[in-house]
Amino acid sequence: MIDLMKFPAKDSATAARVVDGEAVVIKPMESEIHTLNSVGIRIWELADGSHTVDDIIHQIKCEFDVKKENANNDTCEFIKDLITKRMLILYEKSC
User: Fold this and answer.
1) When comparing pLDDT for 1 and 66, which is higher?
2) DSSP symbols for 3-64
3) pLDDT digit string, tens, across residues 23-76
4) Which residues of 57-89 are buried (b: 16+ CB within 10 A; e: fewer)?
5) How many other β-carbons are positioned within 10 Å of the β-carbon of residue 7?
6) pTM over 0.70
7) What strands, in cross-sheet order, belong to the sheet with 15-19?
8) What is the predicted pLDDT for the residue at 31?
């Protein structure tokens, strides 16, 4: 389980572009290209280091009108997947 109070942020070695509702995320060093759906794009946009995982879940729940449990499970799984692929990092904010 992901710590909902941590802050996901994009890995600095990852490049992304959203054009006309389509997102492409590139890991140049690994020669990998990933595409994201509309929910994935929104999570990617919110993973800017200023929102906690819990903030992102709440936003997804509201914007896509899904149940809290579904938003929680799907968002956490997606973030974990992006962390595993080294596209996102998860950190705690210090004072």
Assistant:
1) 66
2) -TTSEEEE-TT-EEEEETTEEEEEEGGGTEEEEE-HHHHHHHHH-BSSS-HHHHHHHHHHHH
3) 889 887 778 888 999 999 999 999 999 999 999 999 999 999 999 999 999 999
4) bbbbbeeeebeeeebbebbbebbbebeeeebbb
5) 19
6) yes
7) 15-19, 22-27, 32-36
8) 81
Greatest C-alpha distance within the chain: 38
What is the token pair recorded at 59? Answer: 């936003």
Alpha-carbon distance 42 to 26, whole Å? 17
Which domains occur in the chain, in start order?
7-88 (1.10.10.1150)
Q: Which two tokens stand for residue 40?
A: 């994935």
Tokens representing residue 66 in the block: 């899904």
